[in-house]
Design goal:
elongated; mainly alpha; about 120 residues; 5 helices; about 75% helix
Length: about 120
């Protein structure tokens, strides 16, 4: 199937919807984190942020595998690799948000300095 200019617009919808689902997932797991934080007298343990990131890592890997498996032939319908963006977007946002939250929890008072080191390194500068 040949992609037209109008059809190319729809190729990012899988990734966008996946990222929205990832953000919703993080919001829905926040009460779990808050309960653990209250049980520990308000002292955050950074590793509590990792279980959603692990789920995101598996999801991101599965999405990339799905995209690589289905995105290289012209006879595969365009929606198949586009739908792989659901898993890739979910995993990408989940990993990113939980990594930032991990840094805030790990460097409580110095997290701004940690962000100053992290962001240029993440951008590849």
């Amino acid at each position: 199937m040949v992609l037209t200019k109008a059809l190319v617009v729809f190729l990012m919808f899988g990734m966008i919807v996946g990222e929205l689902l990832g953000g919703l997932f993080i919001v829905l797991t926040q009460p779990w984190y808050n309960r653990k934080l209250e049980a520990n007298n308000g002292i955050p343990i950074p590793e509590w942020r990792l279980p959603p990131a692990i789920i995101g890592g598996v999801s991101f890997s599965a999405g990339l595998f799905w995209f690589g498996w289905s995105g290289y032939k012209a006879d595969i319908h365009w929606i198949v690799p586009t739908l792989s963006g659901l898993l890739s977007g979910f995993g990408l946002l989940t990993i990113f948000l939980q990594s930032l939250n991990y840094i805030v929890d790990a460097y409580l008072l110095l997290y701004v300095a940690a962000f100053l080191i992290l962001f240029p390194a993440r951008m590849g500068c």
